[in-house]
Write a sequence for this structure.
């Protein structure tokens, strides 16, 4: 009898050891439909608190898995059209990007979200050198990339000590498709660009995480991002099918509100 109990206890310990560790979760969270009169949206973080304002489920999925909007598939209807306010508190300060894992857990618990990841060939671009060669200034220290809006409505990009791979990553946000660096250019460079966004494209996010306002009605349009790249930097975006890591939404429900 004693031997049986010992074996049973050992089996229980082995089972516990074989279990996957629990996914980190928020201690408390409030989810409510956003006020229809609210403008602006985005995410803000404090040491142990995450707030998402006026954002649909598709935005939340992109934030939780650290991908861009065009890398989320299967978001239809209310998942892209109904904005929510989420206020979530953790028991302790976040470690690095721990809030993303916690947001994944929250979306599964409150939205019934189920996803899978897969590689898909999607429309995108290769970043290559233009016919007359690249026109890149010498590199500087302190890597940084900032995007902003001018008073006339143009967008600006200022990058210091950025690699071509990093530039391609930022360009993917601007054009809404995966951009792959195929320049073959090594090193880090200080670059700046100014362009006028194409009509109907989503606005870029400001440093605060909120969408930038549209340009004034009387603004004189400047070059597109495609022309600005070629004229200023001697680089070009060529349309190609490129592999993209995609989050596919298999199932989701409207959440029960607090």
């Amino acid at each position: 009898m004693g031997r049986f109990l010992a074996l049973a206890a050992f089996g229980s310990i082995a089972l516990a050891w074989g279990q996957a560790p629990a996914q980190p979760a928020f201690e408390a969270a409030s989810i409510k439909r956003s006020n229809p009169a609210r403008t602006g949206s985005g995410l803000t973080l404090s040491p142990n608190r995450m707030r998402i304002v006026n954002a649909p489920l598709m935005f939340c999925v992109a934030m939780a898995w650290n991908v861009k909007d065009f890398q989320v598939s299967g978001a239809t209807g209310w998942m892209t059209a109904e904005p929510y306010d989420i206020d979530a508190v953790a028991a302790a300060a976040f470690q690095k990007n721990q809030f993303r894992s916690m947001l994944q857990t929250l979306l599964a618990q409150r939205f019934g979200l189920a996803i899978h990841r897969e590689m898909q060939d999607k429309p995108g671009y290769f970043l290559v050198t233009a016919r007359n060669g690249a026109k890149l200034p010498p590199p500087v220290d302190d890597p940084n990339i900032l995007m902003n809006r001018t008073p006339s409505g143009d967008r600006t990009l200022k990058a210091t000590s950025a690699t071509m791979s990093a530039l391609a990553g930022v360009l993917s946000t601007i054009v809404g498709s995966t951009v792959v660096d195929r320049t073959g250019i090594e090193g880090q460079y200080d670059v700046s660009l100014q362009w006028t966004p194409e009509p109907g494209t989503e606005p870029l996010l400001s440093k605060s995480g909120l969408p930038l306002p549209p340009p004034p009605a009387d603004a004189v349009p400047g070059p597109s991002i495609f022309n600005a790249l070629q004229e200023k930097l001697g680089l070009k975006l060529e349309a190609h099918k490129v592999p993209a890591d995609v989050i596919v939404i298999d199932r989701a429900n409207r959440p029960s509100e607090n």
